[in-house]
Design brief:
Elements lengths: L1 H11 L3 E7 L2 E8 L2 E8 L2 H10 L4 E3 H9 L1 H17 L1
Antiparallel strand pairs: 1-2, 1-4, 2-3
């Protein structure tokens, strides 16, 4: 899934994630030292929900950001398993 790969790449090169709801999509802005490193929209509801669960008021920074960055494989596995479960329903 390209969205997961893009998030993983952006996590490596930034230190803050800002999540904004835009109609039926979620916009992710990855910020490093005050400048936006990467900005893209996510349409997948399962992935958007998982990102919202890790954020505090739409912002992932500090310890929460480091935790997401260091345990991203588990995060991606959780998202993929939820997507599989939704597909099987």
């Amino acid at each position: 899934m390209k969205e997961l790969e893009r998030i993983q790449n952006a996590l490596r090169h930034s230190n803050t994630l800002v999540i904004k709801d835009k109609e039926k999509k979620v916009e992710c802005s990855f910020i490093k030292e005050g400048l936006v490193y990467d900005n893209f929209q996510i349409e997948n509801k399962v992935l958007a929900s998982a990102l919202h669960e890790t954020s505090l008021n739409g912002i992932v920074e500090g310890l929460n950001f480091e935790r997401l960055k260091n345990t991203y494989d588990w995060f991606a596995l959780r998202v993929k398993s939820r997507m599989l479960l939704d597909a099987l329903k």
